[in-house]
Specification:
79 residues; mainly alpha; globular
């Protein structure tokens, strides 16, 4: 019997954010997250006033999509 898992939009965004922070830039179907999806997550976090997470994600976006860093696979390091 198949298990059906229903995910809300909130759960989808938060779980994707956690994967990105852990350095996993692909979804469950092994598709790369796009720059637009990163922006969508950033907008969601701003609307929820989760500013620390916004700063972390913004730094990842800057490093991830920077041509000079050769689109490096960045993993966020906790300080």
């Amino acid at each position: 019997m198949k298990k059906i898992i229903l995910k809300s939009y909130d759960n989808h965004i938060i779980s994707s954010y956690k994967r990105i922070v852990d350095g996993i830039f692909i979804n469950d179907k092994f598709e790369l997250y796009t720059k637009d999806f990163f922006a969508e997550i950033l907008q969601y976090l701003e609307q929820r006033e989760m500013y620390e997470e916004c700063e972390i994600l913004n730094n990842i976006i800057i490093k991830r999509f920077n041509h000079d860093l050769n689109y490096k696979n960045i993993q966020y390091e906790l300080r």
